[in-house]
Amino acid sequence: MKHHATDAHTLAAAYALGALDPGERAHFGAHLQACEACREEAAEFEATAARLAAAVSQPPAASAKAQVMATIDGVRQLPPRVPTSASALSLGDILRRRAAPFALAAGLAAASLGGVAVWRAQIEQNLKAQARQVQQQLDTISAVLAAPDARTAHGRAANGALTTVVSSDRQNKAVFSAANLPAPGAGKTYQLWLAQGATMRPAGLIDHDGTVILTGNPDAAGAVGLTLEPAGGSAEPTTDPLLLMALPA
């Protein structure tokens, strides 16, 4: 296959994701030796891919212990049996009374184990659903980064965060990546916006370093904005933009 000098500039994302065939990888590797812009772009894509891989890890639910203890507390302890008369106790009565605490303990243990089993099944289902959602997001982000028409823009927010936007007309998607993003603070979140003329449309939330898929149609927008908003986001910006970066053309 014959390669042209202009072709190599479109291969940075695919190179970083390992999506090139051996011939293309060798061609692009040679091109990198002489092209500083492509070296920087490939390094940025590799850093983004590394952050995405770390995003799949899911911590255990903080409410796990409370759920188990609530299950145990819900088991009602039976009152002790009281003889209906003053007659002498039979051997059977004595044996039943001595066995009662052990039966109760066994019942509590069985109830606890049953509650834990239900809790574990619910947690596993939730984690599997979250993993599927994360994998779908990773697939979408990878498709945008590896698209032949992927375009990249870099910026720095007013709070010092380093930002990158990659968009693809073919995928009709854009992804936003942030590094060195300060914590938003209690009751706050960072919100992304797609600027369409004078209108700012919500495009997603981001609270820490990472990569997110911008919601909305990037083709109709001219810039990406970043503001600090109340937790949960806002219908329109309530603070001055920390970043207003033109989408790559």
UniProtKB/TrEMBL annotation:
<keyword id="KW-1003">Cell membrane</keyword>
<protein>
    <recommendedName>
        <fullName>Regulator of SigK</fullName>
    </recommendedName>
</protein>
<feature type="domain" description="Putative zinc-finger">
    <location>
        <begin position="7"/>
        <end position="39"/>
    </location>
</feature>
<dbReference type="Pfam" id="PF10099">
    <property type="entry name" value="RskA_C"/>
</dbReference>
<dbReference type="GO" id="GO:0016989">
    <property type="term" value="F:sigma factor antagonist activity"/>
</dbReference>
<dbReference type="InterPro" id="IPR027383">
    <property type="entry name" value="Znf_put"/>
</dbReference>
<dbReference type="GO" id="GO:0006417">
    <property type="term" value="P:regulation of translation"/>
</dbReference>
<dbReference type="GO" id="GO:0005886">
    <property type="term" value="C:plasma membrane"/>
</dbReference>
<dbReference type="Pfam" id="PF13490">
    <property type="entry name" value="zf-HC2"/>
</dbReference>
<dbReference type="InterPro" id="IPR018764">
    <property type="entry name" value="RskA_C"/>
</dbReference>
<keyword id="KW-0812">Transmembrane</keyword>
<dbReference type="InterPro" id="IPR041916">
    <property type="entry name" value="Anti_sigma_zinc_sf"/>
</dbReference>
<feature type="domain" description="Anti-sigma K factor RskA C-terminal">
    <location>
        <begin position="106"/>
        <end position="241"/>
    </location>
</feature>
<keyword id="KW-0805">Transcription regulation</keyword>
<keyword id="KW-0472">Membrane</keyword>
<dbReference type="InterPro" id="IPR051474">
    <property type="entry name" value="Anti-sigma-K/W_factor"/>
</dbReference>
<keyword id="KW-0804">Transcription</keyword>
<keyword id="KW-1133">Transmembrane helix</keyword>
